[in-house]
Design a protein that fits this description.
Strand order of the largest sheet: 1-2
Strand content: 5-15%
Largest sheet: 2 strands, antiparallel
Structural class: mainly alpha
Shape: elongated
Radius of gyration: 20 Å
Number of strands: 2
Helix content: 40-55%
Low-confidence stretches: none
Number of helices: 4
Mean pLDDT: 80
């Protein structure tokens, strides 16, 4: 009798593990419960490891956070995306 089930590859397993991890982290965020520093760190690391970035829009709270940083937000080419409030004051 021949096995007709599709062969599961290592890539399939890793892709499923990646999806499951992303779904778990998303559920943690959506739960509304306070996230521990360890969970926040895991979420940030997951995003960073997967090169997930975002450029905040004008009405985005993330832009307000970026403006509070003591240095400008720059992209990978060194182009300033968001100036800090401190730099704006020095102009």
């Amino acid at each position: 009798m021949e096995n007709t089930q599709p062969k599961i590859t290592v890539e399939d397993i890793l892709a499923q593990l990646h999806r499951d991890t992303a779904e778990h982290l998303l559920k943690q965020i959506q739960s509304g419960e306070e996230l521990s520093p360890q969970m926040l760190s895991a979420i940030i690391k997951f995003l960073k490891d997967n090169d997930i970035t975002v450029v905040p829009q004008a009405s985005d709270p993330l832009k307000e956070v970026a403006e509070l940083l003591p240095f400008p937000s720059v992209d990978s080419d060194g182009e300033v995306l968001i100036e800090s409030k401190k730099e704006k004051e020095n102009e």
